Structures are given as structure tokens and as C-alpha cells.
Amino acid sequence: MRTISDAPSPSRISLRPFLAGAVVVALAVAGLAFLSEAFANGGQKVYLANIEPGSKNLPTQPSIVVTGTGGASAAAEHALVQLLIVRAAPYSRDFATDTPSSAAVAGDVSIAPVVDAIQAVGVPEGAIRVLSSPSLISVCSVSAKCSAARVDVTVDKPDLDLLNAIVDAAGEAAGKQELTVQDVGVGYTIGDCGPLHAQARDAAAADARGRAEAQAKALGVALGTLVVSSETAPTEPDDANGCPPFHGASSDAWWTPGSIGLTVPPFDPLAAPQVAISLQVTLAYAIQTDAVPSS
Fold first, then answer.
1. What's the start-to-end Cα distance of the chain, in Å?
2. Once rounded to an integer, what is the mean pLDDT over residues 9-18?
3. Rg (CA), the chain
4. Dihedral-angle region of residue 42 (phi above 0 means left; psi in -120 to 50 means alpha; beta otherwise)
5. CA dist 202 to 67, 72, 205, 212, Å?
6. pLDDT at 233
7. For 215-243, how does the pLDDT look when each residue is reduced to its tens digit (9 = 90+)?
8. Would you state the pLDDT for residue 43?
9. Which of 12, 72, 243, 270 is disulfide-compatible with 196, CB 3.0–4.6 A?
10. pLDDT average, residue stretch 231-256
């Protein structure tokens, strides 16, 4: 007598789904590797591929990728001048008073003569602000004690002669008080940086297009359709006027942890007061495979 089992017989397992999955995973890993290398190079290296799922192979579209740089500038409408003034004495509020009366009683100096000298060259009193804080600077030398005050001067429609007059007058007045003008900086602004961004972008795109044409000529090929356009993002947002934010140099704080100095770039007494914008634009053009330019 033959017994027949009720349990179903094991079915044959197909390997085709596993092979297809392995191919998909391999392609994903390769794509991630390309992306990781692109980000590791600051986003400047870009891998372009045109994969056709229905084709027998996986071709990449021949492309030319170039980066262009463009800039634009305009005369500054406003300027913020900062002077970091240091004295060889511990911090006291009397140092930053508008009148030297209390300091004179104590036999100390005051920053008031510096403020008066700045006003004497034509700067209104309301455009001058004195910032006094122990956080401004904390080291003068290995053993000496010191303190600092920062004088901020706002100038409308600045010209180079006036800016130099402000710096010279402050330096001379500080010297008479046995004070030191340690750092001088200035930041320039305009009411709207939007038009400058547009001009810089147009210039960068034109520069990239020219580089692509030159590269195509060197390779003996013809440019095809523009397939990718990208713009390098700023490292931080623009200010309320659409202009790049100000930054002081690291040396403005004398490399002292916890202290601050200028919040604007260093002052160049020979540079015209202006606001400058620069941009980078990356373009990718397909290479024409059915046309070759004549030499």
C-alpha cells in the first residue's frame, strides 16, 4: 500500500529576482560613491550621466562641464569705520566717557579727545558711537595690563579723502593721550545689492559659456544643448540689503579666545569705497555627436 503525503512538495526557487536586486544595489552603491566624491571636493566636481533603462548597455552622455566667475561693483552709499583703541591700563568706564572730567580727576585719560577730533573733520556727533567692554580685548603682552574701546563712525556717501581724514585725526588725537590705535576697519554698503548680483551672474554665465566654447574647440567637437546650470551657494545668507555680511579679520582680536575686535574688514587707505559682488556659475553642455566644427 502506497501512502501519499498531504504536505506540498518544495517549489523550485528562482534566482532571477535576486540577480535583478543585486544589479540595482550595485548601481545604487556606485551612484553614492560618485556623490560622496563630489561632496568631498566641495561640490565642485560633478558627474553627469544619461542612463537609458531600455538600452542594452548603460551609456553616459558626452558632456563638457565648465565653471565661470563673474563680478560687479558699485560706489558705496554708506561706510562703517571702526577704530580699536587700546590703552595700557585696566578696564574702566571712565575711559569711554564723552567728557574727560571724571577721568581728569582720577589722573586717567579719556577717549573724548579722539571723538572730538573725528567731529572736527566734519562727522556729526550722532554718527559716532563709542563701545566700551572688557570683552573687546584681553591681552596686550605677556605681563602688561590693558583695555580697549572701539569707536564706530557711520559715514554717508563716503569718499576716500574723508575716510583717511577720520583715521588720521583719530590716530593723532590718540597719540597725544598715549593711546594706541590698534586696528582700523571699514565696511561698505549700498541700499540694494540685487542689481549687482544680476550683473555678476550674467558675467559668470558668459565666462562659463566662453570657457565651454574654448574647450570644445580644443577637443575638436561642437557644443550641444545646455543640460545643467548651477550656481555656487554662499556660505551664509546675505544681509537685509542682499549684500554679503561683514567680517573682521582673526587678528582683530589678537588671537585671544573670548575677546572680540573689529566686525568689519581691514581698512585699505588706497582702495576706493565700493561694494563688490562675485559669483560662480557652472554649466554643462552636451557634446554634439553628429556635427564636428570645421578647422
1. 92
2. 52
3. 32
4. left
5. 13, 10, 5, 15
6. 84
7. 999 999 999 999 999 998 888 888 888 88
8. 43
9. 72
10. 77
Amino acid symbol at 9: S
Smallest Cα–Cα separation from 111: which of 96, 127, 131, 126?
Answer: 96
State pTM to two decimals: 0.69
pLDDT at position 125: 92
Burial class of residue 136, CB neighbours in 10 A (0-12, 13-18, 19+) = buried
205/201 Cα distance (integer angstroms):
6
* Per-residue pLDDT tens digits for 42-80: 444 343 433 334 444 434 578 999 999 999 999 999 999
Nearest CA to 261 out of 79, 138, 117, 123 is that of: 138
For residue 117, CA distances in Å to 39, 85, 121, 170, 292 come to: 53, 14, 7, 6, 71
119: Cβ contacts below 8 Å, ≥ 6 apart: 125, 128
- Residue 39, pLDDT > 70, answer no
83 strand-pairing partners: 151, 184
